[in-house]
Structure formats: structure tokens, C-alpha cells
Amino acid sequence: MEIKVLFQGFPGKLQRGFLGWSSMIYISTGKQKILVDTGSFGDAPEIPKRLAQINVKMEEIDTVFLSHFHYDHIINAHLFPKATYLLSRIEAEYVTGGSGDWAVPEYYFSHLEKTGRLKFMESEMLIAEGIRSIYTPGHTPGLMSLLIEDESMPTTLIASDAVKNIVELQTGNVPMAWDTKVSKQTIENIKDRVTRVIPGHDRILHIEKDGVIACHSVKERIQLPAGISEVTGFDLGISSTTGAEECPCCKSVIDRRQLHE
Ligand SMILES: [Zn+2]
Ligand SMILES: [Zn+2]
Questions:
Q1: 208-232 pLDDT, tens digit each
Q2: Which domains does the chain have, with CATH numbers?
Q3: β-strand partners of 87
Q4: Rounded to the nearest 5 degrees, what angle is found at the Cα of 1, between the Cα atoms of 195 and 28?
Q5: From ligand 1's centre to the CA of 72, what distance in Å?
Q6: For the chain, give me the number of helices (H) and strands (E)?
Q7: Ligand 2 centroid distance, CA of 144 (Å)
Q8: 139 CA to middle of ligand 1, Å?
Q9: pTM of the model
Q10: What local confidence, expressed as pLDDT, does residue 223 receive?
Q11: Residue of 68, 77, 59 lying closest to 115 (CA atoms)
Q12: pLDDT over 90 for what percent of the chain?
């Protein structure tokens, strides 16, 4: 099995609102090609390019796993012409039941339904060998994550917004939650169950005895038009500092000190 972070999530906000840059994960089992979430507005033209870099065509994606129905995770789902869209039944009821959640684009639900390829997960289920959908509610009522159990890698949760970033995994404090208490309990359960988490809006995270560390193998860069100098990077990490150590999965440099202030 191969897992690739196609787009790295980013936790940033602006004064004018939430950026909505979420993680998008590609999984190949050898038999199946699975995409976990589909990014936000603005990601559309980049998706086929990044898949092409790993020799995958849009029409080759068999399954698009939609963790929950927030716009920043689902809005490009229609770009995959042959995929089955998997969404939990509980989340579907949240969307169609008048959630009042500003991040849910209700109109898009009926658009996906019309394809005839939107399927509802009635319970936790095996998506492929070693890949199981599990309930991780709190951020929204029906949010599901993917649990990956494969001997080639540490037990991993593709958490989406069950864990948005490193701070949430460390502290259990979650802003923007449908139910804060449920969300906090979900994070506790995740910590008991896995050692690696791919969050909705951050880098790959490793759960260790004395804290959480972030892997810096994937980096996005903010690009500005020529004539405007680059003002900031999309790199959350500190590198080339003394006391730096290696990330256990990608061997890139991590720095523990930033995480224990
Ligand atoms: Zn969300
Ligand atoms: Zn999100």
C-alpha cells in the first residue's frame, strides 16, 4: 500500500476568514486508487497535475472518500468521472437536515446525488484491505476518518478535521466544532489507537510518548505574482537549528522545541 499526501493541509486564517486549505490524500492498494477528500475552491486545476506526477489519471480514481461535507474537503469531487463517492449516512442527514453550518454547501449535495455515484456508509466499513472507515465525530456529527493498518507503515489515521492541526492533537482543544466535548473525546480515542495522524489542516503528525511531532516531508509554497516579492512561505517548520532530529517516517528534519512552548 502507498499513501501520498497530494496536498498538504494548512491551518492558517486571515482576518477576513478561514483559508480552507485542507489535506488531500491519495492511496494506492495495488488494486484500488482512493482519494481522501478533494480540497477546496482553487485547488481544481492543480489536482490533475499532481496526480499526473504520479502517473494517475482523474478517471482512474475508483473511490473518493468524503470525510465530511465541508466545502474545503468536498467541492472538487465532481471532477472524478468514474469514482464512487463515499459519505457517512449520518453526515448526509446533517447536510440535508438544515444544519445551519455555514461551511456546508447544501446545493452541492444534490449535484453529487445526481451522478448516481454517491453512496452512504451506514456504519464503519472496510474500504479495501487494511483500510477501514471509522466514526470520528465532533467537528461534524457524521465525520469519518480512515484507519490504515498495514505492516509497511505505522498505524495511521487519515483524520481529516477530526484533528485539524498539531495543537488540537496535543491539547484536545478544538475551535469550530459541532460538539466540542464529543470532538475532544474523539481525539483521546485517536491517541489510544494510532501512532500517526494525517490531519485536515496540517502536516503528518507522529504521536510519541512525550508529545506530538510534525513531519516536514511535504511542503507547499505561497506564490505571489511577479513583481511582488515573496512575503511568506507555506512551511510551518523550523529547520537547520541545533538539536534538530529526524522525522521517523520521512527522515526530514524536525525540531521538537517548537512544539513544547
Ligand atoms: Zn471541516
Ligand atoms: Zn477543513
A1: 988 899 988 777 877 777 777 655 5
A2: 2-206 (3.60.15.10)
A3: 120
A4: 115
A5: 7
A6: 6, 17
A7: 13
A8: 7
A9: 0.90
A10: 76
A11: 77
A12: 77
